[in-house]
Amino acid sequence: MDKNLLVIFYTDPSREAKPLLKSAIGTEKTQAVCEYLVETVRTVADGLPFDKAVFYDGPVTTEDRWDDSQYVKQPQSGQDRGERMQNAFTWAFSAGYKNVCVIVTDCHGLTSEIITRALEFLDEGGDAIIGPSKDGGYYLLGLNRVYPELFVEKSWDSYTLLDDTLQDFERLELQYGKLPVLVRINEKRDLPARLRF
Q: Is the dihedral of CA 105, 181, 160, 188 positive or negative?
């Protein structure tokens, strides 16, 4: 077992909500955008040398796009995003991993270099690393152990999420790093040129 684990929080594109995007471009095109983003993340993750796990927002599926020989598969559990993330980190550390990064699948521009950099930062003694998103949230959170304060009393779909989390890092006196700012696709204006309809 590798000491590093990449956790992918996955929602099937056919079940992805994205109400603002759907109202602008329609359900079918929204699903096509989500499909493209998921496939991009899968391609990036497939090439990484770390252990990998997919946490499903819905039924766990075998023999799907996530190769069963490469990915451990688990259901997300919890009442909100914070509880689901905390439970995923808890599961990973309980399984013996030393450094864990959780990523989402609706972010444009995520690369293998960004993920590798995050895990290297933790390998080198960092406590936490975050990938800020342009909407004020984040697309990646990496930790060397569970810090429960990071997952409670947060507005998960709010532009304050990143700042609130960084304030927690400061209060906890964590040695933390920040990755490049990327765009999570939630509405039409977030779409890169290649995905505009």
A: negative
